[in-house]
Amino acid sequence: MPNVLIVSNCPSLNTRRLQEAVLRGCRHENLENVDTRCKEPWDADHEDVLWSDGIVLGTTENFGYMSGAIKDFFERIYYPCLEKTEGKPIALYVKGGLDGQGAKNSVERILLGLRWKLIQPPLVLKGEFQDEFLDQCAELGTIMSAGLEAGIY
Predict the structure, then answer these.
(1) Which of 26, 28, 91, 127 is 20 to 30 A from 54, alpha carbon to alpha carbon?
(2) In a 3-state reduction of DSSP, which class is residue 107?
(3) Nearest CA to 79 among 105, 107, 37, 49?
(4) Cα angle at 9 between 21 and 145, to 5 degrees?
(5) Using CA atoms, how far apart are residues 54 and 133, in angstroms rounded to an integer?
(6) Ranges of the chain whose pLDDT falls below 50
């Protein structure tokens, strides 16, 4: 049974809603053989990463960079996971203000160092919160779980 780890920063009600949408997507009714853990960055550690077969990572854009919570997560898991998790499938969503590119780029640099593989281009959710963001996040979760269940990733 594949394992999906969701690690997302949720400093607001809307970012919590995004995380819940990803979780709902990972647990889609048509998927039966996927186990999912959902954690805040402060609570996730390298053991969670090693447990997982795929990760969905969510961050806000703060000052043109990933959130401090996600940065802390990477700092704690980087070396314990460096050579043990190469090729790990990952999906990324960014809740940005004006453009989200700074946060996306900063996460992608770390993913490159870890040698994790994005399963699709990062989902950048820009501007004021829109309900369609929830559908996009749910779809991202479903894509990760379905791909792992089917053995694609």
Answers:
(1) 127
(2) helix
(3) 49
(4) 40
(5) 21
(6) none
